[in-house]
Amino acid sequence: MYEKYVKLLKDHNLKITSPRLEILKYLDEHHTHPNVEAIYSSLKKKHPSLSRTTVYNSLETMEKNRIVQSLTISGSEHRYDLNKSLHHHFLCTRCGIILDIDIACPNMDKTLQGGHHVEEVHGYFKGICKNCQKKEKGWRTNG
Amino acid sequence: MYEKYVKLLKDHNLKITSPRLEILKYLDEHHTHPNVEAIYSSLKKKHPSLSRTTVYNSLETMEKNRIVQSLTISGSEHRYDLNKSLHHHFLCTRCGIILDIDIACPNMDKTLQGGHHVEEVHGYFKGICKNCQKKEKGWRTNG
DNA sequence: GTGGCTGCAAATCATTTGCATATAC
DNA sequence: GTATATGCAAATGATTTGCAGCCAC
Question: A35: which chain B residues are within 8 Å (Cβ-Cβ)?
Answer without folding.
Answer: none
